[in-house]
Specification:
Blueprint (H helix, E strand, L loop, with lengths): L1 H10 L15 H35 L16 H11 L8 E5 L4 H12 L3 E6 L7 H13 L3 E4 L5 H10 L4 E4 L13 H21 L5 E7 L23 H20 L3 E6 L2 E2 L8 H11 L2 E6 L7 E2 L2 E2 H14 L16 E6 L5 E2 H12 L4 E6 L14 H7 L7 H16 L9
Parallel strand pairs: 1-2, 1-4, 2-3, 4-5, 5-6, 6-11, 7-10, 8-13
Antiparallel strand pairs: 9-12
Helix pairs in contact: 4-5, 4-10, 6-7, 7-8, 9-11, 11-13
The structure holds uridine-5'-diphosphate-glucuronic acid.
């Protein structure tokens, strides 16, 4: 969202600074203006020259801007390093030492807590951007703190921060969940997707490839990579070259980038294609969340339908099932083979669908919410706009079952019941007490 801020400040700058005014002054004033303009010109030219020289010397010796520390950075120092080390200390001899990016996000919070509970060392990283209400991220952070997980506030594009973290802790694994999520928002702010999902990913992989030892990486791809693929259920072998949104295209690009870093540097990388993950502490930008909010407020909700009154459906997957898949991916990840930025041998490269295998029409999702909330929704059924959405998703999970033992067990009604219970407790103002 820092990106959003940057762009929105540009919106307030007028494109034409002012109208040209013809000069009606006398010759004397003319000459006087000429001399003052000349001296001003010289002054500005010298400033400009000095600036060019400054840029020249600094560009050849300093790292790219994203990796320089900015004035607002709040990390560093002895106390901070101590907190980082303490959080990353594992409590079982066989445990992992995991850096979780996007730790204050929906999936990040659940995965971090699950890892910490079983004795792994966990350090969180999150930039707390404003894509959705940051108070929810802060509430998740409190939950993480109570579980012993420290969340470093910083961006995955900040290479000096990432390098520092790897200096302080020898991470065995990185669970990379930081991303610009949301399919439809990509039309409003395309730059934020490139910034987080492409530039941020490359920056992270650059640091990982140079780390010694190199960590194994597990990261969040998306079911959206299947795009306009119509063969169901979606298998990892199916084509993924027809993304329907820029979001999907950046996730697909991420998968290709992962291939490159695996091939050149020997990084062990596992991509997980999540299918519409929902549950307590979820994302307010997702339909099940804002439908709940609007139904309770008596506001109308828009339910999309496919052409010819066709059904739009999603393979909604409950968060606890996704967490199990993430942990299994970390546990089965083989070590990276490179060191010091050099590959020593072939490394593991995997991609898995993590879905629920039973798509549910969006209309049915609304009916379940009506039942749980005991409120009738004001539905407006509209044709699905051409904004990146796809008609349906449906996961084939046989590969994840075989390799990870992944077996989702929560149906949509059971999962939504848990979500609604959490939602009512969190939004009733008893945020501190809201159940896990
Ligand atoms: O599976 C995935 O890969 C993706 O799942 C979700 O994307 P999406 O499935 O579009 O989830 P929602 O935005 O919650 O939409 C769910 C369904 O509700 C429908 N919808 C959405 C909004 C609305 O106003 N009305 C409506 O009918 C959508 O068309 C869609 O079928 C997440 O938002 C993405 O970050 C994630 O990567």
């Amino acid at each position: 969202m820092s990106q959003l801020k940057t762009l929105s400040h540009l919106d307030s700058v007028p494109s034409t600074p002012g109208k040209f005014k013809p000069d009606k002054s006398t010759p004397y004033v003319h000459r006087f203006r000429f001399y003052t303009s000349l001296s001003r010109l010289t002054l500005w030219s010298s400033f400009f020259l000095a600036f060019i020289i400054f840029c020249f010397f600094f560009s050849s010796s300093s790292p790219p801007p994203s990796s320089r520390r900015s004035l607002g950075d709040s990390w560093g120092g002895r106390d901070w390093e101590r907190r980082v080390s303490r959080s990353a200390r594992k409590h079982t001899s066989s445990g992992l030492t995991v850096l979780v990016t996007g730790a204050a996000g929906f999936v990040g919070t659940h995965v971090s807590i699950a890892l910490k509970r079983r004795g792994d060392g966990v350090l969180g990283l999150d930039n707390f951007n404003r894509y959705y209400d940051p108070s929810l991220k802060r509430a998740r952070q409190k939950l993480l703190e109570r579980s012993g997980v420290f969340v470093v506030e910083g961006d995955i594009n900040d290479s000096s921060l990432l390098k520092k973290l790897f200096e302080v802790v020898a991470f065995t694994h990185v669970m990379h969940l930081a991303a610009q999520a949301g399919v439809r928002f990509a039309m409003q702010n395309p730059g934020s997707y490139v910034h987080s999902n492409i530039a941020g990913l490359v920056n992270l992989l650059e640091v990982c490839k140079s780390a010694d030892p190199q960590p194994a990486i597990v990261w969040a791809s998306s079911s959206s990579v299947y795009g306009l693929n119509s063969k169901v259920p979606f298998s990892e072998k199916d084509r993924t070259d027809q993304p329907a949104s820029l979001y999907a295209a950046t996730k697909k690009a991420g998968e290709e980038i992962a291939h490159t870093y695996n091939h050149i540097y020997g990084l062990s990388i596992t991509g997980l294609r999540f299918f519409t993950v929902y549950g307590p502490w979820g994302r307010p930008d997702m339909a099940y969340y804002f439908f709940t909010k609007d139904i309770l407020k008596g506001k109308s909700i828009t339910v999309f339908e496919a052409p010819n009154h066709g059904t739009v459906a999603r393979d909604f997957t409950y968060i606890d099932d996704i967490v199990k898949g993430c942990l299994a991916a970390l546990d089965t990840a083989k070590k990276s083979t490179g060191s010091g930025g050099k590959k020593k041998g072939p490394a593991q490269l995997r991609v898995f669908n993590l879905g629920n295998t039973s798509p549910v029409p969006v209309g049915q999702l609304v009916s379940i919410l009506e039942k749980l909330l005991k409120v009738k929704a004001k539905r407006k059924v509209l044709p699905m706009p051409r904004n990146g959405d796809v008609k349906f998703t449906h996961a084939n999970i046989s590969s994840a079952y075989r390799e990870l033992g992944y077996k989702p067990t929560t149906d949509l009604e059971t999962g939504l019941k848990k979500f609604v219970r959490w939602y009512l407790s969190y939004h009733s103002g008893s945020k501190k007490k809201s159940s896990w």
